[in-house]
Amino acid sequence: MRMITRRRGFTVAAAAAAISVALAPAAGAADQYGAIAYSSNGSWGRSWDYPTRPAAEATAVKNCAYTDCKVLTSFTDCGAVATNGKAFQGGVGATLAAAMKDALTKLGGGSIDTWACN
């Protein structure tokens, strides 16, 4: 099981996101779960390669480390979170590119703030 601890206000520029898509690992097996949680202050926590969705979500919230952290997206393949500087929106997809596109489409534009794949 892998996890990333919280970070504040890290925004990936659109050009960097495009590079990330090209360099990203392929999505994993459907029996693994991941999640991304966010705080209202922009801090986040991620998890991936967990055997259950509840375990992945609990770890993401724990890694976010603020009392108001909430899961924005849970996934079996890839998940991403987009921001426009005012709001955050999660997305999922079979590939990292699909997850990023889903998040950006749901938000109506912006940039990718963080992502993870199993």
Automatic annotation (TrEMBL):
PROSITE patterns: TAT
Pfam families documented for this protein: DUF4189
Membrane-crossing segments per the record: none
Annotated signal sequence range: 1-29
Record domain DUF4189: where: 33-109
Keywords for the protein's UniProt record, in alphabetical order: Signal
Name of the protein this chain belongs to: Putative secreted protein
Organism (species): Mycobacterium triplex
Source lineage: Bacteria, Bacillati, Actinomycetota, Actinomycetes, Mycobacteriales
